[in-house]
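User:
I would dearly like some help making sense of a protein record. Take your time, and here it is.
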Amino acid sequence: MTEALPVPKQVLDTLKDLLGREVTVNVTDPAGDAPVVAVYQHNDQSLAGVIGFTLPLAANTAAAMGLVPPGGAEACVEDGELSPLLTDILGEVSNILTGLFNLAGRPHVKFHALHTSDVPGDVRSQLASLGSRLDLTVDIAGYKGGVMSIVVPLN
C-alpha cells in the first residue's frame, strides 16, 4: 500500500504548531542534497517514508524548536553538521512529524531513525526517487529556512 503524501497545508500547520511561530511553505523543485534524513516505518518495519532536510533547514528548525538563538544554527551550518543538541531536538521534531504519515484507516507509521551523517544508500535512494514526493521551501520567522523533501515509496 502506497502511503499518502501530506499536502503543504498539513506540513505548514504542523510546523507552525510545533515551533509556535510564523512559518511559510511553498512547493519547490527537489533540493538534490539532503544531508539530514528522518526515516519512518510501519509496525512490520517496512518503509513508510522519508523526510530529507537541507542542513540549514535542519539546524534552524531544531534551533527554533529548542529556543536556541539563530547563531547556534548558523554555526552548525558553517561547521557542516548538526551539534549534538540540535540533533537531539531534530529527533524530537522528526518524531512529531510522524503525524504527517498517520491517517485514519491506514497502517500505523512510527519514526524509526534520524541520519545526520553517512545516510545509508537505500535511504538516500528512496529520497532521490521521483515517484510520490513533496518538496517544500520552508521559512521560519526569526530563523533561516531551507528545503524539506517528503518521499513515500511507490508499491
Summary: The chain is about 35% helix and 25% strand.
